[in-house]
Amino acid sequence: MSKHTDAAEVLLERKGCAGVITLNRPKLLNTLTVGMIRQIYTQLKKWEQDPETFLIIIKGAGGKAFCAGGDIRAISEIGNKNQKILQDFFREEYMLNNYIASYRKPYVALIHGITMGGGVGVSVHGQFRVATEKSLFAMPETAIGLFPDVGGGYFLPRLQGKLGYFLGLTGFRLKGRDVYTAGIATHFVDSEKLDTLEEDLSALKAPSSENVADVLETYHTKSKIDRDKSFILEEHMDKINSCFSANTVEQIIENLRQDGSSFALEQLKVINKMSPTSLKITLRQLMEGSSKTLQEVLTMEYRLSQSCMRGHDFYEGVRALLIDKDQSPKWKPADLKEVTDEDLNNHFKSLGHNDLKF
């Protein structure tokens, strides 16, 4: 029951009791297209109904990335020409994120390698997420004129203290065991054991969620790499919690400036490079998302996505970071104080009958 073609962007196979999804664009870091999103959604529906399929495993091909996000470059190239495709991409991506969160069978994401943006969306909402020493997590959207979407407004503010606000605004990268310690992953497994983990999961006989958890726990307990390493942000968490508890981006910046430590000044430098519009959208998104359900968050994020697609900064960010690679985006507006409350409110406005509905 395996569906393979040489150029398939997603491989969908049954292995033992498991439905296995392999994101298969290794040269493009397994970035997601709307076609991949549709295939995954359709197959997950089938497997949820199939009495022979007891769990889902999702992984990335090539060893370098699980999934580096949506294919942003392709989205930006389509963007100015075809608004419908942009609506479809974000709508179907967010529908998939929500479906994964409510999936009725154990869902195991092997987040080995680069896991960013849309890659986080197809993993973090699942029941089990397995990090390895090669995992690299980030939500770097403020650097390209976007915001940490795919439910970032739900999972980021629920991390310890203000960690999620820090990660969402700065795009800070977490590596290896830190992805587990931060609460993004549920388990940590040495990468050389991933193949045998997958075999052991697939070989289970009509497993329950608890059976799957037991196998993951066994591997997690036996993992040796960086076992005694303390969390990279441990010594900075007090600073993060105090500086990022402000209700405005301007106050966060002032807090960092007043703190004056090398860590605070480094974060200040990073934030000052980001799209001012993205920073303000993101802070409000996380504050509002902290008390919303995932579906409410995704509805809000869909409004934001469409607003960003109609704006300037997303296309400029992609140009500067991914196309011309001059790393010098010219944001409009270029200054935080020019992003008014009215501007901000417009981003969050209902789309009426075009709103995302579940």
Automatic annotation (TrEMBL):
Keywords: Branched-chain amino acid catabolism, Hydrolase, Mitochondrion
Localization (cell): Mitochondrion
InterPro entries given in the database record: ClpP/crotonase-like_dom_sf, ECH_dom, HIBYL-CoA-H
Positions of the Enoyl-CoA hydratase/isomerase domain: 19-348
Known pathway: Amino-acid degradation; L-valine degradation
EC numbers: 3.1.2.4
GO molecular function: hydrolase activity
Catalytic activity: 3-hydroxy-2-methylpropanoyl-CoA + H2O = 3-hydroxy-2-methylpropanoate + CoA + H(+)
Predominant location category: mitochondrion
Enzyme class, UniProt record, top EC level: hydrolase
Matching Gene3D superfamilies: 2-enoyl-CoA Hydratase, Chain A, domain 1
Family as reported in the entry's similarity comment: Belongs to the enoyl-CoA hydratase/isomerase family.
Function: Hydrolyzes 3-hydroxyisobutyryl-CoA (HIBYL-CoA), a saline catabolite. Has high activity toward isobutyryl-CoA. Could be an isobutyryl-CoA dehydrogenase that functions in valine catabolism. Also hydrolyzes 3-hydroxypropanoyl-CoA.
Protein name: 3-hydroxyisobutyryl-CoA hydrolase
Gene giving rise to this polypeptide: HIBCH
